[in-house]
Amino acid sequence: MRAVVFHGPEDLRYEEVEVSPPGAGELLLRIDAALTCGTDVKTLHRGHPVMIPRVPTVFGHEFAGTVVGVGRGVSAFREGDRVVAANSAPCGECRLCAAGRPNLCEDLLFVNGAYGEFIVLPERLVAENVVRLADSLPAARAAFAEPLACALLAIDHGEVEAGKTVAVFGHGPLGCLLAMLAAARKARVLLIGKAGWRMERVRTLGLGECLDATASADIVADLRALTGGRGAEVTIDATGRPEVWEQAMGAVGRGGSVVFFGGCAPGTTVRLDSRRVHYEGLTLSGAFHHTPETIRRAVDLLETEAVVPDSLLTHRLGLEGVEEALKLMARGDALKVLIEP
Ligand SMILES: [Zn+2]
Ligand SMILES: [Zn+2]
């Protein structure tokens, strides 16, 4: 098959790769739709010791497809099933899996290979994290299940619900998915971004009240003014920038919840107001990755059209266009690119 293979940092090759038949417990999938992700851009630049422990590896991790081969012992799926697969599967046995936090599994098995014509899904993934799709759900929309499941974990952490004000920092695809989820729960959404075409595009999506941080002398003061001086009930960082983490803490109100969704560069630190954290009972939490449960709920939200993220697809290319797609992403000229093999 043709596939886009990661050979190491800055070394992506569109080449011929052999497809092996599915072994015991495995599924062979024909990929119908794959999506680019900000993580791909970072990984292409500097590698990723956790997500890509070995090279060469077929690149990409957000995809949906059709089962075209079923390994021995698999009874839950048959040829022709349309499915979405997460990009990881927890072990189910470590102390964090036992504690119901499989996103933090000590032995998370990562799966890459969205940018190929086919992919073999390993046994553990098939057992834990592959979901059959309703006929009505297009593959391009279903492929959002993985990032949407990550966002859902953050929304859960923040206990976002109707009547609360939620400030989302960052207007990239994940900031938008967070805003869509918060809006679906009938929360008031304040989306903070930077001036530019992406902001203009996001404004047209009606995800909430958009604020341009670059046009503000003090975004925290602006957010407080918009919330009657109290601050938001929930603030979520989706930028992965330490200075924005501090803004998220500054803009949250008494008794509120700050969710750190965007991962910062290694070695960075933030300042926090210890008085406020204690006397105002703030909840600070990190939200990383997804769980088999949030993956299933994400598929449900897509199937019931509670969340319709199609508007985040700004470009559509074939496999040979992956490198170009990632350049568009790196330059901030795309939100998400749909790759159709
Ligand atoms: Zn992703
Ligand atoms: Zn585990």
Structure explained in plain terms:
With 341 residues, this protein is an alpha/beta fold. The chain folds into 2 domains: 2-143 and 308-339, Alpha-Beta Complex (Quinone Oxidoreductase, Chain A, domain 1); 149-286, Rossmann fold, CATH 3.40.50.720. Helix content is 30%, strand content 27%. The strands form 4 sheets. Strands 3, 5, 6, 9, 10, 17 and 18 form a 7-stranded mixed sheet that branches. It has a 6-stranded parallel sheet with strand order 13-12-11-14-15-16, sandwiched between helices. The longest helix is centred in the middle third of the chain and has 13 residues, at 145-157. The protein starts with a strand and ends with a strand. Bound molecules: zinc ion (2 copies). Residues 37, 39, 61-62, 146-147 line the site of one zinc ion.
Summarize this structure as a short list of keywords or feature phrases.
single chain, 341 residues, alpha/beta, Quinone Oxidoreductase, Chain A, domain 1, Rossmann fold, 2 domains, 7-stranded mixed beta sheet, 6-stranded parallel beta sheet, 27% strand, globular, binds zinc ion
